[in-house]
Write a structure and sequence with these properties.
Distance between the termini of chain A: 41 Å
Order of helices and strands of chain B: HHHHHHHHHHHHH
Helix content of chain B: over 70%
Largest sheet of chain A: 6 strands, mixed
Distance between the termini of chain B: 74 Å
Mean pLDDT of chain A: 83
CATH superfamily of the domain at 4-40 and 54-173 and 202-210 and 220-227 in chain A: P-loop containing nucleotide triphosphate hydrolases
Number of strands of chain A: 10
CATH class of chain B: Mainly Alpha
Radius of gyration of chain A: 18 Å
Largest interface: A-B, 54 and 51 residues
Strand order of the largest sheet of chain A: 6-7-8-3-9-10
CATH class of the domain at 4-40 and 54-173 and 202-210 and 220-227 in chain A: Alpha Beta
Number of helices of chain A: 6
Strand content of chain B: under 5%
Structural class of chain B: mainly alpha
CATH topology of chain B: ABC transporter involved in vitamin B12 uptake, BtuC
Oligomer: heterodimer
Shape of chain A: globular
Helix content of chain A: 10-25%
Low-confidence stretches of chain A: 239-253
CATH topology of the domain at 4-40 and 54-173 and 202-210 and 220-227 in chain A: Rossmann fold
Number of strands of chain B: 0
Mean pLDDT of chain B: 87
Chain lengths: 253, 294
């Protein structure tokens, strides 16, 4: 068996009420694991806890065999959040955002070296955004912005990609470009942990599915078949998401 | 008036004033851009309020008001950062108490200081460029250099934490240390700008050049360069006008920055209109964000 790259043991997360209870998840090198579940099931919280973005009330997290607190090899992880941070009014180009994917590898920030620039160019090509490098990200469609975030993660040349609902509300062309980028990443030995609402064109590359329901893992194994009208061909299962809270005067919460 | 202006600018105290203003104009937007990116544009104003307590402490104890202002405003900035980090709604009230406590404390302490009238208070609130001594100028230059080293030297890191703090965390950046560093540098910038534009106007020089720059720029690096250029132009123009018309330098610099913003906005709008007329209406249709599942 391949070594585990991400492991949550007896993980529990509580905000005002318990969100996750006694969750056990092991992702091994080379796997492509989809975390499925309804809105509010705790699936996003689970992977965010796995990255240390949400504190665990109980349990432990290990990344590449090291306890979270002692883990320093962050360049091995590429994280793709649900959406581009709200950011302020200051524009940033696609190239600038993707370049920040190199930070974990660069140490003290100086000028980008040739190797950094090549990695950024490769990542932009992988998501088919090379011609938008110098455009402000705010001028891109939602799907293109999502691809920018994937390029940012790919630019760091990680071993593990962690994606939080990468295809929610993304147009078909972007979904296809995204699936292709992910297939290439997996073919080169990458490990993927992704939260998804529906798999779409990703389905063929998923090796294991984990279903989170009401804060516990309800299924861990083969990809479950969709039920009812969800199974109809061409069913576009995308839920409207709650609007983001407007930022307060001292920043995002 | 031209000859008059050249004559005035040949006076050493005017040259020191100009130099001090130019340094402030250069560094304030280089820091302000991060605050704007975080939607914390008004924080500089709050830190300025807190710095006044530092000034009061300095005048009362007979130590350098610049030194005490840096210390007190840095403590205040760190407190603000800790409140932001916790991100609770009650933090809003905490900030208000901190800011108004800062300015009230400053006025109170200055009143206690022996032989210090309201004229002195005014010089800290609205700047006193014309009394800049050679020593003051050295202090401004050194502190300004520190701020620039951080805001320009650490730009990729600071950009990352202000753009997407969670991503920066997963990149392994020392997010908390960088946030605190940014807070302390905000305090230093406020103190440097205290001499030129004053504590009540400092925020303008941090924010307005950035606002003007982002009207025409496409990226973060470009915005930063343009904003710093805009800050320097505003400072130079402000000093020139204030020398010619004998107006308060600090207020004139801020008005120059706002005039620059309006000018850039007007020219930018005109250019966009012409470009649109050349290429016809943009036919890009956003794909639907979501389909209702009824």
């Amino acid at each position: 068996m391949n070594p585990p790259v991400l492991e949550i043991r007896h993980g529990a997360v509580a905000y005002d009420r318990p969100v996750l209870r006694d969750v056990n998840l092991t992702v091994r090198s080379g796997e492509v694991v989809a975390v499925l579940g309804a809105n509010g099931s705790g699936k996003s919280t689970m992977i965010r806890a796995g990255l240390g973005l949400v504190p665990l009330a109980e349990g432990q997290v290990e990344l590449f065999g090291a306890p979270l607190r002692r883990f320093r090899d962050w360049q091995r992880i590429g994280y793709v959040p649900q959406r581009l941070g709200a950011g302020g009014g200051v524009p940033a180009t696609v190239g600038e955002v993707v370049s920040s994917g190199r930070l974990a590898r660069r140490g003290f920030p100086g000028l980008l070296r040739a190797g950094d620039r090549q990695a950024v160019a490769r990542a932009l090509a992988a998501v088919d955004l090379t011609d938008r490098t110098h455009d402000p990200v705010a001028s891109l469609s939602g799907g293109q912005q999502q691809r920018t975030l994937i390029a940012r993660a790919l630019a760091g040349e990680p071993d593990l990609l962690v994606l939080d609902e990468p295809t929610a509300g993304v147009d078909a062309k972007s979904q296809e470009a995204f699936a292709q980028a992910l297939r290439d990443f997996v073919r080169h030995g990458g490990t993927v942990l992704l939260v998804a609402h529906e798999l779409g064109p990703l389905q063929p590359i998923i090796t294991r599915a984990v279903v989170v329901h009401d804060g516990v893992i309800a299924h861990d194994g083969a990809v479950p078949h969709p039920a009812g009208h969800h199974a109809e061909p061409g069913h576009d299962h995308v839920h409207p998401h709650a609007p983001q809270d407007p930022p307060s005067i001292w920043g995002r919460e | 008036m031209n000859v008059n202006l050249i004559e005035i600018m040949s006076l050493p105290f005017m040259q020191r004033a100009l130099l001090g203003a130019l340094i402030t104009g250069l560094i304030a937007p280089s820091l302000g851009i991060y605050l704007v990116q975080r939607r914390m544009s008004l924080i500089g104003d709050g830190i300025g309020h807190i710095a006044l307590t530092g000034v009061g402490v300095g005048l009362l104890t007979g130590t350098s008001p610049v030194l005490t202002a840096i210390i007190v405003s840095a403590l205040g900035a760190v407190a603000v950062e800790l409140i932001r980090e916790r991100g609770r709604t009650s933090g809003d009230i905490a900030l208000a108490i901190l800011f108004y406590g800062g300015i009230a404390g400053g006025v109170f302490l200055v009143g206690l200081a022996p032989g210090k009238g309201s004229a002195n208070l005014t010089s800290y609130l609205f700047g006193s460029l014309l009394t800049t001594s050679a020593t003051d100028l050295t202090t401004i230059a050194i502190l300004g250099g520190c701020v620039l080293a951080v805001t320009v030297g650490l730009r990729p890191w600071l950009f990352a934490i202000c753009q997407d703090e969670e991503y920066a965390k997963v990149s392994g950046l020392p997010v908390r240390a960088l946030n605190l560093l940014l807070a302390v540098m905000t305090a230093v910038t406020v103190t440097v700008a205290m001499r030129s534009v004053g504590l009540l106007l400092v925020s303008a020089l941090m924010v307005v050049p950035v606002a003007a720059a982002q009207l025409v720029s496409r990226g973060f690096g470009g915005t930063m360069t343009l904003a710093m250029l805009g800050g320097v132009i505003s400072a130079g123009a402000g000093i020139g006008v204030s020398a010619g018309y004998d107006t308060a330098p600090g207020a004139t610099i801020v008005l120059a920055a706002i005039a620059l913003f309006i000018l850039v906005a007007a020219v930018g709008t005109a250019l966009r209109r012409r470009r649109r007329a050349d290429t016809g209406p943009a036919a890009v249709c956003e794909p639907p964000e979501c389909v209702l599942d009824s």
